Amino acid sequence: MERVPALDEPLKKSLGPATAKVMAEALDLHTVGDLLHHYPRRYAERGELTTLADLPLDEHVTVVAQVADARVHTFNGSKGRGQRLEVTITDGSGRLQLVFFGKGVHKPHHDLLPGTRAMFAGKVSLFNRRLQLAHPSYELLRGDGEDRTDKIDVWAGALIPIYPATTKLESWKIAKAVDAVLPSAVDAVDPLPDALREGRGLAELPDALRLIHRPRTKADIATARERLKWDEAFVLQVALARRRHADTQLPAVARRPVPEGILDAFDAKLPFTLTDGQKKVSKEIFDDLATDHPMHRLLQGEVGSGKTMVALRAMLAVVDSGGQAAMLAPTEVLAQQHHRSVTEMMGELAEGGMLGGADRATKVVLLTGSMGTAARRQALLDLVTGEAGVVIGTHALIEDKVQFHDLGLVVVDEQHRFGVEQRDALRGKGKQPPHLLVMTATPIPRTVAMTVFGDLETSVLDQLPAGRSPIATHVVPAADKPHFLTRAWERVREEVGKGHQAYVVCPRIGDEEDQKKKSRASAEDEAEKRPPLAVLDVAEKLRTGPLTGLRIAVLHGRMHPDDKDDVMRRFAAGELDVLVATTVIEVGVNVPNATAMVIMDADRFGVSQLHQLRGRVGRGSAPGLCLLVSEMPEATPARQRLGAVAATLDGFELSRIDLEQRREGDVLGQAQSGVRSSLRVLTVIDDEEVIAAAREEATALVLADPDLAGHPGLRTALDALLDKDREEYLEKG
User: What's the first-to-final CA gap in the chain, in angstroms?
Assistant: First the structure.
């Protein structure tokens, strides 16, 4: 959640224009409310008091001691004359030097007179072979006896908030600014209904804000975090529940398959039976399609679980009802692959209006940006006349020129590649809102699905079709054991010798474009030992080295679309033995005869991406083999990641590992951009119970009061979450 009207006062009023300017530029904080919702990321403890005789180097310590001596030294530095204050303190067990520089000498010089007793906290460093504290915090101890002892205990035991900060704005300056505005927390408008808050025993919002910023105990932090997690989860779930509710109010044409129509004809010619999972998910989809409000469903499933088959049957059900279905794919390679596999699966049922086409056939049209003018004109004509019942395409489907006769269903493949504008543009092409089926091959933990895709009903395919073979995955430590890599290429040769094919995947293309990118690389990238292996280099080495004599081709995103399609066709037809490619083959590519995959520099890929890539093999009756090549040492997190991928084929388990290993800011991927207030204390992996409970409460509340007329505080928080820049958050995955 974010700011509320009572806290809308600009920071320059409370903190002055200079500080407010830095807050706005460095941290995007503009109002008192923004600052109050900028929570500490952790808390430091001044910790146990340390005697001067036992000071550990490079650690933060707190000591109580008496000033023995204090002197100001003047020196000539690069910027002219400067001052250094050296203070010697003693506690009877030893002595320690404190140093203060520049303008920072005046206050301590005034405060730390010989004989003064104080507490000092800072990091122990070494200078001229002597231990010292540079610019320590200190608290003067005045008074005697118990008062002083209590003060020492309280001060040493205090929790110091450490804020997300920048070089222009240190944590302690933020803490000082928070102190200035913290009294305003009493005006915070509470988004949680009283009944919910009291029923769950949550703190009131002003108390939670006070406790998160200035806790006295760790229990205070826990109380505050529990309350603030609920704010984040509940406000977001209300937004999603309202979207779901609004969708149920829209009109749509109910789409039902007809007896003995194209769907029945298709099912009758299938050479296999659908899995129980496919049947169950198909029923959920058909039930949704039969209603008179638009379906909004997320179909997620394991790599190779048969999502395309389920989507195709839904598309044919819509064609049966007289409508058209469009499938939106993120890349031309994937659109062409889908078009090829759909026409192959449908056979004569995809030859509507053609010689040899079946009676109940329709046309299946491909529409991409690189098509020739004549083919494109014909495709557009087939769509507007309704001749084509099924269209598969890329972003080209969204262009203004594209008109449908009666668009009934939109299938979006790989949801995370499309923004809200693109999805809405396609949905806007129906006379009434079409039904929507979103597919993703990246398994999503339940909590993430509830948080990112909460406006969609979810169907899960977690069962592999019969005939799919298991995939064995092994890590190949190329630096530690070079002979393992030699053996990997031998295994590729063995698979080709059995009549199978192989993929070799590299992180980089390796042409001039890559070099330009490299020259703009960040310091972190430069710190890598070497650039990632490239398709063009690796293909050349394999042709002249370990795979000499085999038929090798390359595939990457900067090839001309016709060349890409030609390579994929030749590979699918078995005319090539080895395809050296980038991640362009990550999703949707289906070559059942490919049984082996070698992923070079596998540590450069994410866990879910490796799982996706691996899913390209083992798609036929022969077992699949995936080899993860890495030069990273065994104990590194990168190698542990690869070990996790090798240890399980469960994509849902791997997606959890992936999320746990990524920084919190990445958890929602693209969805986080522009929504700086969305998740601050809530973590989608750890807070499953809070998210599930918030969804339940939000759904019930929206059902009873869709306009939130009885909940003005919640309305305010919602408006703050969903301001113009953030609208697309809910529809990006």
Answer: 19
Candidates 339, 260, 603, 622; CA nearest to 467 is 622
Tokens of 705: 């009061």
Would you say 416 and 733 are in contact if contact means Cβ atoms under 8 Å apart?
A: yes
Q: Which stretches does DSSP call E strand in 22-113?
A: 42-45, 60-77, 80-90, 95-101
Which tokens in the block code for residue 61?
């310590």
- Sequence-distant (6+) residues with CB within 8 A of 270 are none
Instruction: Kindly report the pTM of this predicted structure.
Output: 0.68
CB atoms under 10 Å from CB of 286, counted, come to: 17
HSE at residue 631, side-chain half, CA atoms within 13 A, is 9
- C-alpha span between 679 and 691 (Å, rounded): 12
Q: For the chain, count helices (H), then strands (E).
A: 26, 21
pLDDT category at 83 given cuts 50, 70, 90 is confident
Burial track 621-652 (b if 16+ CB lie within 10 A, e otherwise): ebebbbbbbbbbeeeeebbebbebbbeebebe
Please check whether residue 690 is in contact with residue 233, taking contact to mean a CB–CB distance below 8 angstroms: yes
Q: How far is the C-alpha of 397 from the C-alpha of 380, rounded, in Å?
A: 10
Mean pLDDT of the chain: 83
Instruction: State the DSSP H helix or E strand holding residue 287, giving kind and residue range, or none if neither.
Output: helix 276-289
Instruction: Report the Cα 651 to chain-centroid distance in Å.
Output: 16
Q: Yes or no: say if 275 and 306 are a contact pair by the CB < 8 Å rule.
A: yes
Residue 365 forms beta bridges with which residues?
Answer: 391
| E runs forming strands in 600-726 | 624-630
Q: What is the mean pLDDT of residues 689-709?
A: 92
Give me 350's structure tokens: 């995809």
Binning the chain into helix, strand and coil, the percentages to the nearest 5 are 45, 20, 35
Chain centroid offset of residue 386 CA: 39
Helix (H, G, I), strand (E, B) or coil at 730: helix
Q: How many residues does the chain have?
A: 733
CB count within 10 Å of CB 585 equals 24
Per residue in 84-126, pLDDT tens? 899 999 988 888 999 998 877 888 999 999 989 887 878 888 8
Q: How far apart are CA 300 and CA 460, in angstroms?
A: 5
Rounded to the nearest angstrom, the gap between the alpha carbon of residue 458 and the centroid of all alpha carbons in its chain is: 19
Residue 666: per-residue pLDDT = 38
Residue 66's Cβ-count burial label (10 Å; 0-12, 13-18, 19+) is middle
